[in-house]
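Journal club side-thread
Mid-discussion, someone asked how the predicted structure for our own chain would compare to the paper's figures. Pasting it here so we can look after the session.
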Amino acid sequence: MTLSGTLGKTFVLLVLLMASATVGWATHSMLLMIVGVFGGLITAIATSFKPNWAPITAPLYSVLEGLAVGGISVIYAERMADTKYAGAVPLAILGTFLVFGVMLFLYATRVIKVNQTFLTIVMAGTIAIGVTYLVTMLVGMFVPGFYQLPIYRSGPIGIGFSLFVIFMAAGNLAIDFKVIEDGIASKAPKFMEWYAGFGLLVTLVWLYLEILRLLSKIAGRR
């Protein structure tokens, strides 16, 4: 595992995701979006349990997740079309890369140190968010009104929750950087370049969607 190899493979995954997202955006296909959502989830789980599959599953995840991201972006764009946040999608993309750049700078200069305390806080927050979203999805299937909880609305609680989620996603970026640095230092197997790129891509997609959700909540405060 090398830095140049990891950067190269991460770039390939980003290109695949952006190309696929463009298809999802252009077609406005709900079917493609659903295939992307569930296909991406299954592929991500498989990659997480079998990192040595990453040279195959990571590119596949990028393509599937791109379809999902493109379709979801269309939904948010249409929802905010008549607001002053009509350009929310490019703004969310810009915000994602700005957060990435800031976190990379803070990590490289050691302003942020990924120690055990940092890992515990970020992982605990991430698990709590994941459980919250999972419970919402399951309960919401039977109780539609459950989606009207304050954390999902455009009030101060909802916006505060979105900011917290974005903060946790940014923390995960620092963990991704640590994984890459440690993998290079320990001369991890070559397939870990793909796996590290996959991990970084998962976090970037999560960050982008959360920024888009935040902008949607802000747009709703008219």
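Post-session note: The radius of gyration is 18 Å.
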